[in-house]
Amino acid sequence: MNVSTRVRTVVGGAPLLVRRRARTDAGLLALTGALVAALVLVALLAPRLVTSVADEGARDVVERGRPATDVVARVSGAVPPKAGVRPDHAPDDQRSAARTVAAGVPASMLRDLAGPSLSTFTSAWTGNLPSGQFVARAGYVLPADGADPVRWVTGRAPEQLDDVVVTEDQSLANVERRVEVGVSVDGARALGLEPGDEVRVTTAMVSRLTAVVVGTYEVTDADDPVWTTLPELVRAMPAPGGSADLAAVGLLVTDASLPDLLVAVQPSAVTTDVRFVSVPDRITAARAQVIAAEVAALRTDPRPLQLLDARQPTLLTSLDDELLAYRDRLAGATAQASVLLMGIVAVGGLTVLLAARLMVERRSRGLTLERARGASVTSVGWRALLESVPVTLAATALAVAALLLVMPPQGAWWPGVAVATVGVVAPALLAGALVRRSWTGRRVPANRADRDRLASRRRTRRLVAELTLLAVATGALLSVRARGLLSSSVGDVDWLLAATPVLLAGAATVLTAHALPPVLRRLRAVASRGPALAGLVATARAERASRTAIPLLSVTVAVALMVFSGITVATVDRGQVRAADLVVGGDVRIDGPVGDDALAALREQDGLTSVTGSRTWVSRTFGVGSGVDVTLLAVDTGPFEALRAARGEGGAGLARLADGAPGTGVPALVTADLEPIAETTDPQVWVTESFVALDPRGTTDLRVDGAPTVVVDRAALAAAMGIEIPAETTWLLGPGADAAVTATAVEGLPNVRVLSRTDWLDAWNTSPLTTGLRTLLRVAQGALAVLAVVALVLTVVATARDRRRTLHVLRTLGLDAGTARRLSAGEAAPVAVAGLLAGCAIGVAVPWLLTGALGLSTLTGEPDGTRVATTWVPFVLAAGALALGLAVAVEVEARTRRDDDLALGIREAER
Hints:
Layout: H1 3-11, H2 14-24, H3 26-65, E1 71-76, H4 90-104, H5 107-110, E2 113-122, E3 125-129, E4 132-142, E5 150-155, E6 176-184, H6 185-191, E7 198-202, E8 208-219, H7 231-234, E9 248-252, H8 258-262, E10 270-278, H9 285-300, E11 314-316, H10 319-362, H11 364-372, H12 377-406, H13 414-439, H14 448-483, H15 495-498, H16 500-528, H17 533-545, H18 549-584, E12 588-594, H19 596-603, E13 610-621, E14 629-635, H20 637-647, E15 666-670, H21 675-680, E16 684-686, E17 691-699, E18 709-713, H22 714-721, E19 727-733, H23 737-744, E20 753-756, H24 757-766, H25 768-798, H26 800-811, H27 817-849, H28 856-860, H29 873-896, H30 902-910
Parallel strand pairs: 4-9, 6-8, 14-18, 15-17
Antiparallel strand pairs: 1-10, 1-11, 2-4, 2-10, 3-4, 3-7, 5-8, 7-8, 12-19, 12-20, 13-14, 13-19, 15-18, 16-17
Helix pairs in contact: 2-12, 3-10, 3-12, 3-13, 3-25, 9-10, 10-13, 10-18, 10-25, 11-13, 12-13, 14-16, 16-17, 16-18, 16-27, 17-27, 18-24, 18-25, 18-27, 18-29, 25-29, 26-30, 27-29
């Protein structure tokens, strides 16, 4: 037989037969196409949603981090060629500085930035008025768009005054200079200023200076980045707590009056910021790492920004740090999304496989007849391909069209291709396998020993395949635990390792498939002793059906990922609450020097239960000549004990610092490893410039970063040293903590940063990355629940024809409709229950075993690692979905049997 003849035997008449079959099964083909279209759409949509969430998260990081994520080139004031000579060209020099800095920024980096804007400001002044003094600072601004930054309400804009002639014998320090300034409407109201008022200012001056208020203004755009470092120029700011100042108010100078300001102020007291604003809309997650590298390189070597007068700006920004920290968080989210994506593709492929199995089982009689009449296995497969290819292509085209309506085309295509490939190939393979089993001749030895040997070989091959799957799953698990899901070299997902949960579900399916038949045999034995017929028949049929692993694998993977998603959501939610407690340590944490007056002002506020100040010195010498370094911790003893009690921590025994008679030194507690040294040497500790004698009162388990620690009372240490020791870290407890910080204006103190537990938790909870991942996990739960229902329905309907023969015979023995439903449910229930148990086990095990690999701590923010949290919701959802699927499948089968002809069914059963 030549090649053309062989081809004709395979493809001849195939289109005609395919058209006839398609017309007969048009409804089932339409449902199959709809299923494939939906699964391809989900498979294509999932990675694009992940990318969209990642991009939104990168933009949110930049936006929330402002103004710290702005790129600022900061330079001190220019030193004039001769002191006391007014720099009339100063406005032009400011614009030249902005252009020079912009020219030094790499062009690729400028694509993600807007600007520059420029602001020049002095250090804080003391402004003296008849009504009191206030904190003043002069400033000059140049917005990026060149528009007028303010609108003058009363008076006029400042102008340049006549220059002061300085004689050679006159000291510059005694020269009286004046500068015209403007004040914001709010600032003028707070201080009672009007045009014409004069303010005597004192600071690091070259000459004496009086600021003359000539007008009040309103800022045209208070959100313009040019005002970022000058809030007191926009409105009056509260004076720092504990000070006698009326307020903090800025004094605005213009192009005309800027030279009058600069000639009177020391250059070291003048700062110029050239600010580039990070534009979130231009930033994507893929480009974030490139931007971070460019910013870090420029910050390391800012020489390209050097000004024409050789001044070297310093680059100030947290953009690179924020984007790198976001990269770590994104890695955790990507790891979890990759697990879900692999699971959805696997469950989707298995569901399509079950749909193809249903189609083949429905046509089994016709396919077997074709084979009996001489059709080859290849021709049967070819006809199946002629049908599956157009159906799958049409479904895929519909899915892609729907995708392009809602999402951009960029993104991974392989998940959709994988599902579509299953839709194309599965019908041909299953049809070929069916006819090959039916009529392909196979010689069977007459000798029983030989038959047993062949059966043993088949069992061995199956055992080797199953052991290989178990070995691959175990190896993937160990590799993921050691390496994580992301490759450290390129940061991309290792998809083979991302399939670890699916491989574990496959391994669990293998074990369950071996455990299920003995259980069913035991149930059949129990049912055989009872009067009910449905239980006996159902267990017998279920035992035979348990040899098919695809339905069990589909249910197991779907349930495992449902449980995994629910546990992950619960872990992230609870972990962020725990992280807020650990990171903040109270309702509000204040980092930076806070004096006793400010602490006293805080304690007077309502709604606070505790105000705890502390100061830490690291690497302090303990004992003269001992060579032992310790960490010295000075705390407010009583409030600190209350703080630890609120945290749920055990008492540190700090009450002993106040007990007993005064000793020869500062009462102290030491960690156990320092007790022998304290007993054998004169207990002293080096604080700042001298040793301070200690009076050890016992040991404590309180350690700072695991180092040997000495704990003292902050007030007692301050009294022994004779100086005030401001708190460097302050914790506030109570519902009024945020209001107390606002009321006392603590955040306005120099070098002070306030971190609120509410704000921290809100920032992490509402970030697009967290909300997007939470939404993805919950949507995946729903999608997997639907797929589990579909898988059960397809499984029950696929075996309905064989079961229908049994039911027809049993109807002649008096089987009613209710018992028939129970028999159908009883046959499918073992697969559902076994899949539920195995899936729940895998869904719980994966988060526990892969906590580090999944990067959960980068999403929760917990500094000491994430604790997996469990919840009952995913278990109930999985059980409910399977129960619903079972009920729907039984009802669908019952409705298809309603109009069956009993006589015809019995004749079919006899054949």
